[in-house]
Design a protein that fits this description.
290 residues
């Protein structure tokens, strides 16, 4: 089976690091990912740079990435303003994100789920030329509320469906959700909304993420997010762990007989490059209100 991997190092992997990676270095890492065979790269997020200083150069990054027919670069946005900034910068693939729990929505987006979704919907309708897909944070477990009610998750899924968005990612934002719970929730939403395409964004607290991948692939999921070196974490989700490492995910999938189109040796070079750049980047000056 062919499995697609989106590397999110440049966005999720870097957003919680207490260093600022230069735009030129971000572009260098993107090039290394492409050379390794990664076809989808989550490159930036258009969010408030006071809250996430790492993303202050989002427009410059998107404008500078090389145009390659076989590679897509995605931008993340939490609200209408972020979508507009992404479009103005030249983004053509935009992931809009909302939370499945009210407490995380308040912390991450600064507003209720309902208000966040309404603002996204109004703006999405204005840009029919953009390829939108959706991500749902705290789809399974919230750092403030605990296990997420499946009906709350379905409400967000259906809101995105009503916007015409049919590709939806479910995020284990903390990385603490058991494989059993992820698969049970996934089965429930697929039974309830079977005409959508689902993918998983897994963080990895207890080294259970690969087991979850194995179970999800068996259940028919063929797309996963991951980050070079296992970097990442949500600044607004206390206790969030790093992403599943792209190199570990690729090795695991190859080991159980699936294809990814990724060259493991070149991917290892990309990991070394990313780690070296992060290690030698200057410390960020963080906003106290962050």
């Amino acid at each position: 089976m062919q499995v697609e991997i989106t590397d999110v190092f440049l966005r999720d992997g870097l957003q919680d690091e207490e260093v600022i990676v230069a735009t030129a270095h971000k572009l260098e890492i993107a090039e290394a990912l492409v050379e390794a065979g990664i076809k989808r790269i989550e490159a930036v997020s258009f969010v408030n740079p006071r809250r996430v200083p790492q993303m202050a150069d989002a427009a410059e990054v998107i404008a500078s990435l090389p145009t390659i027919d076989t590679v897509s670069y995605t931008s993340l946005a939490l609200n209408g303003k972020g979508i507009e900034r992404a479009v103005d910068a030249g983004a053509r693939d935009i992931q809009v994100v909302a939370s499945a729990s009210q407490a995380h929505s308040n912390a991450n987006a600064g507003k209720s789920i309902e208000d966040a979704l309404a603002g996204i919907a109004d703006t999405v309708a204005r840009f029919p030329q953009i390829r939108f897909f959706a991500g749902i944070s705290t789809a399974f477990t919230c750092p403030f509320e605990g296990p997420v009610n499946i009906d709350h998750l379905l409400r967000v899924i259906r809101a995105f469906k009503s916007m015409g968005i049919n590709n939806i990612g479910l995020a284990d934002t903390l990385g603490t959700t058991s494989t059993e719970q992820v698969i049970a929730s996934l089965a429930h939403v697929r039974d309830s909304e079977p005409n959508l395409t689902y993918y998983l964004h897994l963080h990895n607290a207890h080294s259970q993420a690969l087991a979850t991948v194995g179970a999800a692939v068996t259940a028919g999921v063929v797309r996963f997010d991951a980050a070079l070196g296992g970097f990442g974490g949500c600044p607004f989700a206390p206790g969030a762990h790093g992403n599943i490492a792209t190199e570990e995910l690729v090795k695991y999938l190859h080991g159980i007989g699936h294809e990814t189109g990724v060259d493991e040796e070149r991917l290892a070079e990309a990991v070394r490059l990313a780690r070296d750049i992060v290690t030698h980047s200057p410390a960020a000056i963080l906003d106290p209100a962050r």
